[in-house]
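anyone else get weird line breaks when pasting these?? whatever heres mine. first is seq + tokens for prot A
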Amino acid sequence: MTRPVHPRRDSRQGDLPDNPLALDQQVCFALAIASRSVVALYRPFLEPLGLTHPQYLVMLALWEEQPRRVSELSRLLELDPGTLSPLLKRLEAAGYVRRERDPRDERALAVVLTDQGRALRTKAESIPAGIVERLGLPVEDLMDLHDRLTTVIAAAKG
């Protein structure tokens, strides 16, 4: 006879499942699957632009503001310089960005968009709406999810 699952109560943590190690109860598992699934939705939109998802994130940051120092991009995107550097090299080889000395500080390396990189923004403008359509969720729900994830990220950094 199987026993029904009755959550235990912990005043600090709310209801805990009887099996706290059940895979389907893990926040990390749900986040990992959600992340891979959503990033995969971007692939058909990004491939025609010649971008991977991490490269797209770099371009989003540069479309918001440029030039950006490599150290600033690293901090903003939460990528270590060893991961960011190859991304920037590939974007530079594609003709989308140029790395140059920061005019405000000659010791720092800055990343600027090329004309081709700026023009790519127009092609990318349809991506957010395409993702919303593919997900089939109301924009309000997605914005709420974004807010909740931002809260989780802040809590994890503690």
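and prot B, same format (seq, then tokens)
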Amino acid sequence: MADATRDRLELPLRVLYSLALYLLTPITVYHLIWRGFRQSAYFERWSERYASFGPQRDHRVLWVHAVSVGEVNAAIPLVDALLQRRPDLRLLVTTITPTGSARVRALWGDRVDHVYLPYDLPGAVGRFLHHFRPYAALIMETELWPNLLFGCRDYGVPAYVLNARLSARSLRGYQVLAPLVRRAVRTLRGVGAQSHSDARRFIALGAGPERVHETGNLKYDLALPPTVETFGRDCRARRAGRLAWIAASTHPDEEAAVLSIHRRLRGRWPDLLLMWAPRHPERFRAVYEQSTAAGFRTARRSDERWATPDSGVFVIDTLGELLNFYACADVAFVGGSLQAIGGHNLLEPAATGTPTTTGPHLHNFADISHRLAAAGALRIANDEAGVAEALDAMLADPALRASMADAGRALVESGRGALERTLALVGADLPAGQ
């Protein structure tokens, strides 16, 4: 009786949800325009966002969805492995943001197909699935759109959430649509969770316990390109012994703190260089202007290949180079953590051997941050002052930096293996190799 009740309720819940989305469709246009004034790429390719893709494709695809840059980076080991092991399959990688799109193109070029994922409207979802006819949907991390998941089920497309993470905060957020989301999550063929806590939360959200597997975090399996070490070595040689720290993936409300910390640190190291990589491209110009207004001689990666000897700040206003500049820095601060964003990828600086500090808001990376801190590779600060103190301590102590670097590399190495477990999870739904 309970199952029958759930079946009877699904359709009216989907209708109400879809009706609300259709009524809100004009707002999506305003949103694209608003974002476009900040990042011009949002004015482009609107047809893809409403699932107009031109002539029908003559081949099926294996579909990987990654929302933006962070998810694309997490998908690198998976996509690279599929390209290498299954050259007979055509891969489609979708994103939602232009920065994610640019990252896909920079990484794989024409080796994969790429479009924006359309909005979660029933008609758009249906046109997308009919056009590309995916063998399977491999959704990265936490993209749980009800119509998309129901559509995959209705079109016979097995759907997986891979490298799956779900914070306690996100779980609470889904409670607003709990009856609908529960039914949508129940359609998943499998969930490859990053940790035991993530697995438990997906089960609490509605995923079948028998379909949830702890596969680990794919970010541990990221192979550093050989060019990263070369870049870091060259960058350090150009600095000629000058200390440098990087503020990476910062958000607008953290920018004043970055400048304040840099000014404080330069009181002890007058020639200290700040390499600054804002999270979003629309902030590139803003942080350059703020740095200049604060009195720092500021250079930009797009203008000059390297910081000049008299530069106090070097703004990294390019995409896809963060690993290189982590390898270049003596110490790092990872943003999205001094405000309630939830943090950003802490494994990248660990992999490059860069001692790191971060703020307290780490709910999106709770497991990784705990492991790194316990290993001695990360210092978690409570606030701006704590971040400054942690950076000061690391800059002042080469032995501490060396031990933190070794601990970070060792932890990344010990965490590998998620890629093979993930491939094993989805393997049954991939077509036989040719």
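btw re prot B: The first strand starts at residue 62 and ends at 65. The chain has two domains: 2-216+421-429, 226-414.
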